[in-house]
Structures are given as structure tokens and as C-alpha cells.
Specification:
The protein is of the alpha/beta class. About 40% of the residues lie in helices and about 15% in strands. The structure holds adenosine-5'-diphosphate and magnesium ion (MG).
Length: about 750
């Protein structure tokens, strides 16, 4: 056994790997945001912050682009592993930011240890034993002295560690101790060797990088640290002093050092903030440039509102619009009055009354002799929209076309013809149907219901002869502002916060197994009072999931059990359209009292008499889905009751269900979901076409998003082309990283 080599190896180099999931073999690389940092402008001779050496551009470039293979402690084999992480050059390492940090806590005296509580102990290794367990695992047992007492540490399958420990080694043992009645035992502690003369490194912060199989944390730490000294001073500063001052940011050199080798939390925070700010500023500049481009290059018909049109539309609604609806309508009609195509998201909780707002916008288009289309996510919903529109327009000449999958080719042709010659003004359908190269006489507005995204291609299909329709996208899944400002391409947002007064309270319960019978008693009592109810299950076939109950199984159980004497219908995604419609119709008319259904009922269905809902396998639904489901039973004049039965697992922590049961504010829930699960499918960066963020975390960096956005707008306001010499590097970074985004003219 050889003692650790001297100064060149950082003391943490021998620490065992953290147990985190991403460090498991083959796990981390693809999942992590490790795209190579090859779009940082390297230098600009003019702006070169003079470093100690005088290097010309090509020398700097050469030094930054030196292949990792030639770096200290790397070599060809490790270089291959680094390549898997997208790390090819010295510069790549500089921009490969840690995904987290670990801290070395100060050592605790043995007398202060508490069983089960993580602690760090300073000890000197006395005995080392290696053996095979009965199950064939390599076991390493170390006995170490703390003053006059002894502790024991054990590791499994850490061959690498076995080679590094030696008798007399001073080290920190960090882990969760157990007392066996005699001695403290550490299972799989992190081992941090100390040189003899080294003071105990209290409170050190170590970077944790994403790994790939065969590559250890210490490899990356060593390689990265070896380039910091040489390379960091060569990285060009893209943020000129005026921007750094305004935003209170440290310089690039200091920032890069701080994130890779922080000396204090404060330093780390400053460094990180600087890098996050830069990343978000570049993104916001790109989005702002695109917005400007959209404003100059795309044209939509101006469809302004005036008091006569407004009165004619408002008269049609059977209710008075709420203040919130009014405000959203104003925002929308202001947009529609411009020749810049509206690109607006209307968000509002389930039942908040988005449909009325959308219908208003559609009728505004009609008032100007333009057509409008609304796309629904399901056929059931399309039918509902068509029905409601026709009812609204019963006494007018406006024609509403409905396009559904169940229609014959001939029926569809009739609608297509009407849209082409302008005899049909409004059309409702599912996305697939409306996108099918329909020819419109004059399309002024497209509304997309319950959909976050409406891609570039779809838009192109609806664009006719250089005229863009206005776009309104509706969602009941509140999208955190941070997201609408970034991943959603900086959409304009209108929000319905308060629903119409007719909405009822919904009581939500977390179902516990013991209370199942009591819940069904209650459910039956309400049915007997004349109410109706849903039973929601996640899946259709038993075979699709091991743990969760299938809709058919639930149906069988209920009709043979708690609901034996009631009229129960079934609705799921595998049924034909006719079957679905029939099931829905039976439920709407009250023919069936209970509808056992999969998530197809999630969106928009409106049966005011249905006030009960049982949700099975609730752990399979996202918070926002649960919340949307709950919205189904808040529509009538009776209060709603929801009971969700769910298994809680680490991925589905109790917090989620508790949050669900404790608040009916969809925005609050969205924030909880965002916090617990991250942006998840909301982000959909792949869909949005944005390259992934490398260091910014939208969950925690929301305030920086705001600042960066504000600054981006100010900068472009003063200097639309970013032509000032001191932002030349910044402009180049925006263009290299986001050229595609700016070109597309659309992300949302
Ligand atoms: P969502 O936002 O989920 O699409 P809807 O537009 O379907 O909500 O509205 C939910 C219910 O509230 C519908 O039955 C609708 O008729 C009713 N509603 C909408 N606006 C008002 C209003 N201003 N006053 C009273 N009821 C309203
Ligand atoms: Mg709706």
C-alpha cells in the first residue's frame, strides 16, 4: 500500500463516491445536462482581460482546446470516458458545472455521536481486513483509533478504496454511525484522507459532477482543478463592466473558480449567480430578438373591438362576465387589434371560465368577417364546445362547423367546403382534424384548448398567403411564470384567477384503506339524494400495470360490491367513439348514476349534477391532473366531494397528496408540483426547441429570470442589434447558442 501522493492530489481525491442515483453505473451521462460547452466565444483580442502572460488569440485557443487526454491524470482511457460526457477539451471541463456539492462537516467527538445521525469523525487507521462475504461480496473492514477508543468502518465492493487505505492513515470518516453496544460502526462512510500535518478541513465544499460508468468523482475533480489555473484566465468576459455593475455580478474568472472550487458558501453563491445570470440573459436576449423579429415580419389581420361589437358579443352570454374574464378579454382584444399576431396563453383553473373568454375572441373575429377555429384535445370536448357555441349563436346567422373522427368523408367535405367559401365562420374539432390542410376563406384566430404547446409546424399549416392568424392557447395547468418566460418562449399570459360565482366548493379527502367502507357509504347516500359521481382509474388493461387497478377490474368490483344496486357506466380510451359518446350521453342525461372512467374524462367535461368522485391509484396521477379531475365536480349548485386513494412512495410523497387535499388553488398546487418534481413535462425543452440550460435551475432561479429578462429588454431597447462594441461577445454568444430559436420565429 502506498501513501497518497503529496500536494498534487487534493485531499478529497480518495473520498468514496457518493451514493446518489446519478452515480450508478451507466446512469448519469444521458440524463444530465452535460452538453459540451462549445459555444462560449473564446476570446476577443480587443476585449482580452490581460492575463499574466501575453498570448495571442491562436495560442489562447490552443490552450483552451487542448484535448482532455493530455491533462494531468487523464490519459487516453479516461479521455474516452470524459468524451461520453461530452467533455473533449480543457474548456469543456471549465464549463462542465457541478450538479451539486458535498460538504465536509467538522469532526465530532465520539461522545457526541448520536445513533442514526450523520456525523464525521477523525480517526487513525490501525487494522485493515479484506474478505469475501458469504454472498461473494468484497468486504473491507477498517478499525481506526480516536484518541484511546476505536471505531469500525465497513465497505462493500470498494476494491479501489481497499488499495488506498493504509495503516497509520489519518482520515475523516463521514456517515451514519451505529453503536453495537461496544463500539461505533460506520457502514460505507465517505473516507477523506488527511495528510499528517494537514489541519482538519472543517466546512469544505466539494463539487459533485455528473459521472459515467468507470469515471470517479475524484477523476473529474482532479482534471477540472488542473485546468482551472491555466484556462480560466483565458476565458473571455462576455459581460461588460456596465452590465456586471448593474446586475451586481462578479467577473467570469472569479465565478468559474468559485463554482468549481468554492471557498465559502457566499463565494459559491456569487459565482453561481453570475453564471446563471449570464445563461439566462443570453436566453432572454434570444427570445427578445425573436419577439422583435415576429413583430416586424409576421402580419395578422387587425381585429379591434369597439363598444358596438362588444355589446353585441356580451349580449349573447347567459351570464355576466366576471371581472377577471373582462380583464383577460381586454388583454386579448388589445392584441387582436394589432397586425402583430397575438401569441397569448390564457391560463385559469378548471372551471374558471376560460371558454367564455375564448368564445368572445372567436366572435370578435367573426364580427370582422374573419373565421375562427378552436381545437379541443378530445372529441367529447369538441362536441361540447360546438354545442355551447351553437346555443350561444342560436339566434344569429353564424354557422358553426364540427369536425370529428366519427364523421364520414362526405360530411367532412361539406364542412371543408363551407370553410373554404366562408359560409361557415366557426369550426370546432380536434387538433388532428383541423390541421389536415383545411382551406379557410379568411382565418383570423386559432384557439387551442387545454394544450400547452402548439408547434411551429402546426402554425405553418394554418398560415395562409403571408397572413398569420392570431393565436390563443388555453391551459388549466397553471404554468409557473418562470416557465412561461423561458421554456414557453416568452408567451404573453392572461390569467383567470377567480372563477365565476357559480363554482362550488369541493371537499377533498385523502382516502385511507380503513375508511373505504365509510367513503362508499357516503357516496351511496349522495347518490340516493340524486347526485351523480365519477370513479377514476388510471389505466385500461390489467396487463398495463402491475400495481394499479384497471378500470374494468374496478367496474367489476363496484358493480358486484358497493354499487351493486346503482346504474354504473364505463368509459375508457379503448372504446370506439360511438361507445364513448353513448357512455357520456347516458351519464349526462342521468341514465347512469356513476361513471367509471379513465382519465379521458379529465378535460372539460361538464355535468353539473356530478358532485362525487373517487380516484383510485391516485399516485399515478400528477398533481395538476388530480386537480383537473377534481374540477369535474365543482360545476353545479351542490358542493363536490373527492376522495383519492393512493399509495405513497418516494416518487409520490405524502406531501403531494396532502397539498392536494389541503388547497383548491390550482396555482398553489402548480407551485408545489414544480417544487417537488421540477419542470417535468412542463418544460418539454425538446418540444420547445430550446437547448437545455446548463447551470440555471428554473425552480430556484426565478428571480434571476425576471432580472435577466428585464435587462435583455433594456439592452435591446437601447441597442436593437447589440452593435455596441462592448456587447459584441455577448451578441455572438446569443447567436451561436440560439440562432435556431431566433430564426424559427416561434417556440411556444
Ligand atoms: P374552464 O376554464 O375550465 O374551461 P368553463 O369555461 O368550462 O371553464 O366554465 C365553467 C363553468 O362556468 C361553465 O359551466 C360556464 O358556463 C360557467 N361560467 C363561465 N363564466 C361564467 C360567468 N361569468 N358567470 C357564471 N358562470 C360562468
Ligand atoms: Mg375548458
Amino acid at each position: 500500500l502506498v501513501p497518497p501522493s503529496s500536494a498534487a492530489v487534493p485531499p478529497e481525491a480518495l473520498s468514496t463516491e457518493p451514493q446518489g442515483k446519478a452515480d450508478e453505473p451507466g446512469q448519469s451521462a444521458e440524463l444530465e445536462n452535460t452538453s459540451p460547452a462549445n459555444d462560449e466565444p473564446i476570446v476577443d483580442a480587443a476585449d482580452a482581460e490581460s492575463s499574466s502572460e501575453e498570448l495571442d488569440e491562436s495560442q489562447r485557443r490552443e490552450r483552451l482546446l487542448v484535448p482532455v487526454q493530455y491533462l494531468k491524470g487523464v490519459g487516453p482511457k479516461r479521455a474516452e470516458l470524459l468524451e461520453k460526457l461530452g467533455l473533449r477539451t480543457a474548456r469543456d471541463l471549465v464549463f462542465n458545472f457541478p450538479r451539486s456539492y458535498e460538504r465536509i462537516e467538522p469532526a465530532t467527538p465520539l461522545d457526541d455521536l448520536v445513533e442514526g445521525q450523520a456525523a464525521t469523525v477523525l480517526a487513525e487507521i490501525q487494522f485493515i481486513e479484506q474478505r469475501k462475504t458469504r454472498r461473494g461480496l468484497d468486504q473491507l473492514i477498517v478499525q481506526a483509533k480516536v484518541d484511546t477508543r476505536r471505531i469500525k468502518a465497513m465497505w462493500f465492493n470498494q476494491k479501489y478504496l481497499a488499495k488506498k487505505v493504509f495503516q497509520g492513515m489519518r482520515a475523516l470518516f463521514s456517515g451514519v454511525p451505529k453503536f453495537d453496544g461496544n463500539r461505533w460502526i460506520f457502514m460505507n462512510p465517505k473516507l477523506i484522507p488527511l495528510r499528517d500535518d494537514e489541519p482538519i478541513p472543517a466546512g469544505r465544499i466539494l463539487p459533485v459532477y455528473s459521472l459515467t460508468q468507470g469515471l470517479h468523482q475524484r477523476h473529474l475533480r482532479t482534471a477540472t482543478q488542473s485546468v482551472l489555473g491555466d484556462c480560466v484566465p483565458l476565458i473571455a468576459e462576455v459581460l461588460p463592466p456596465r452590465i456586471r455593475e448593474q446586475a451586481g455580478l462578479v467577473g467570469i474568472e472569479q465565478a468559474l473558480r468559485a463554482v468549481h472550487l468554492p471557498e465559502s458558501d457566499e463565494q459559491l453563491e456569487q459565482g453561481r449567480r453570475r453564471l446563471v445570470f449570464q445563461e439566462l440573459l443570453v436566453l432572454q436576449l434570444a427570445l427578445a430578438m425573436r419577439r422583435r423579429k415576429l413583430h416586424t415580419e409576421c402580419r395578422a389581420p387587425a381585429l379591434p373591438v369597439d363598444s358596438v361589437i362588444d355589446a353585441r358579443i356580451v349580449r349573447l352570454f347567459p351570464f355576466e362576465l366576471t371581472e377577471d374574464q373582462r380583464r383577460c378579454i381586454d388583454e386579448i382584444s388589445r392584441d387582436m387589434g394589432q397586425t402583430v399576431p397575438m401569441n397569448r396563453l390564457l391560463q385559469g383553473d378548471v372551471g374558471a371560465g376560460k371558454t367564455a373568454v375564448a368564445f368572445y375572441a372567436m366572435l370578435l373575429a367573426v364580427a370582422h368577417q374573419y373565421q375562427a377555429a378552436i381545437m379541443a384535445p378530445t372529441e367529447i370536448l369538441a362536441q361540447q364546445h360546438a354545442k355551447n357555441l351553437r346555443r350561444l349563436l342560436a339566434h344569429s346567422k353564424v354557422q358553426v362547423g364540427l369536425l370529428t373522427g366519427g364523421m364520414s368523408e362526405r360530411e367532412r367535405k361539406v364542412i371543408h367546403q363551407g370553410l373554404a367559401d366562408g359560409s361557415i365562420q366557426l369550426v370546432v374539432g380536434t387538433q388532428a382534424l383541423i390541421q389536415q390542410s383545411i382551406e379557410f376563406q379568411q382565418l383570423g384566430l386559432v384557439v387551442v384548448d387545454e394544450q400547452h404547446k402548439f408547434g411551429v409546424k402546426q402554425r405553418a399549416q394554418l398560415r395562409a398567403a403571408g397572413i398569420d392568424p392570431h393565436y390563443l392557447v388555453m391551459t388549466a395547468t397553471p404554468i409557473p411564470r418562470t416557465m412561461t418566460m423561458t421554456a414557453f418562449g416568452d408567451l404573453d399570459v392572461s390569467t383567470l384567477r377567480k372563477g365565476p360565482p357559480s363554482r362550488r366548493t369541493v371537499h377533498t379527502y385523502r382516502g385511507e384503506l380503513e375508511k373505504r367502507d365509510a367513503w362508499w357509504d357516503f357516496f351511496r347516500k349522495k347518490l340516493d339524494e340524486g347526485r351523480q359521481g365519477y370513479v377514476i382509474t388510471p389505466l385500461v388493461e390489467e396487463s398495463e400495470a402491475v400495481n394499479s387497478v384497471s378500470v374494468k377490474q374496478v367496474f367489476e368490483e363496484l358493480t358486484n360490491g358497493p354499487l351493486a344496486n346503482y346504474r354504473v357506466g364505463l368509459l375508457h380510451g379503448r372504446m370506439t367513439n360511438d361507445e364513448k359518446n353513448a357512455a357520456m350521453l347516458d351519464f349526462t342525461s342521468g341514465e347512469t348514476q356513476v361513471l367509471v372512467s379513465t382519465i379521458v374524462v379529465e378535460v372539460g367535461v361538464d355535468v353539473p349534477n356530478a358532485t362525487l368522485m373517487t380516484i383510485e391509484s391516485g399516485e399515478r396521477f400528477g398533481l395538476s391532473q388530480l386537480h383537473q379531475l377534481r374540477g369535474r365536480v365543482s360545476r353545479g349548485k351542490h358542493p363536490g366531494y373527492v376522495c383519492v386513494f393512493a399509495e405513497t412512495t418516494p416518487e409520490n410523497p405524502v406531501e403531494r397528496l396532502e397539498a392536494f387535499a389541503s388547497t383548491t388553488d390550482g396555482f398553489e398546487l402548480a407551485e408545489v408540483d414544480f417544487r417537488l418534481r421540477g419542470p417535468g413535462d412542463l418544460l418539454g425543452t425538446r418540444q420547445s426547441g430550446l437547448p437545455p440550460l446548463r447551470i440555471a435551475d428554473l425552480r430556484r432561479d426565478g428571480d434571476i429570470v425576471e432580472q435577466a429578462r428585464q435587462l435583455a429588454r433594456e439592452l435591446l431597447e437601447a441597442d436593437p442589434e447589440l452593435a455596441a462594441p462592448d456587447v459584441d461577445l455577448l451578441r455572438r454568444q446569443v447567436l451561436t447558442r440560439y440562432a435556431a430559436v431566433i430564426e424559427l420565429g416561434d417556440v411556444g
